């Protein structure tokens, strides 16, 4: 079967990673969670006191970028690759609400985006890849054979995120999660460098009222249709 590149973009907490993992497993493709890469850089900035609630030393972070080594390592028990930062598994700490509060600000920095986009493009050289993020179909893989743009209401996404964090044992309020979702939406769509926009040739999917199984079936059908035509 012909191998293609699948780019999945969209707002935070729309289930991009879940869908991408499902597709990669079904198609036996490589899955890359670009959001984890930006989260890892944000976590690095937090750990090194480059960013906080009332400050962000961008130039210090830019200077330190060569010190940041990112790597995905496949975990056979979990069935997917986990994010490693400078040799340390950071899959759990990068998923916290604290990192979520800073990741969009870090992702605004052009030098950070340039570093990560270069790595992401290298990963997709041989196609057979599913990548999700904010600028995959517009910047990383503008020639991807299939581009999906996922959306849902802010309230729906906040509830999903809140439920996910609660299940992990995190002590958060729905109001704080909703505030984070709305703030990230604004930053992601208004940044100067690679803002979140829907590519002209992307297929938009509003999954506010779709469950994971329905969404997966719909997108898998799109994949099969594209593969037949390339």
Automatic annotation (TrEMBL):
Location comes to: Cytoplasm
One GO biological process term is: pyrimidine nucleotide metabolic process
**Which keywords does this chain's UniProt record carry?**
ATP-binding, Cytoplasm, Kinase, Nucleotide-binding, Transferase
What name appears for this protein in its UniProt entry?
Cytidylate kinase
Give the family this protein belongs to, as stated in its UniProt record: Belongs to the cytidylate kinase family. Type 1 subfamily.
- GO MF, one annotated term: ATP binding
Main location as per UniProt: cytoplasm
| One annotated Gene Ontology cellular component of this protein | cytosol
Reactions mediated catalytically = CMP + ATP = CDP + ADP; dCMP + ATP = dCDP + ADP
Q: Which residues hold ATP?
A: 10-18
What InterPro entries has UniProt attached to this entry? Answer: Cytidylate_kin, Cytidylate_kinase_dom, P-loop_NTPase
Which CDD domains does the annotation name? Answer: CMPK
For this protein, the record's Gene3D superfamilies field holds:
P-loop containing nucleotide triphosphate hydrolases
- The Cytidylate kinase domain is annotated at 6-224
**Species this chain originates from:** Flavobacterium reichenbachii
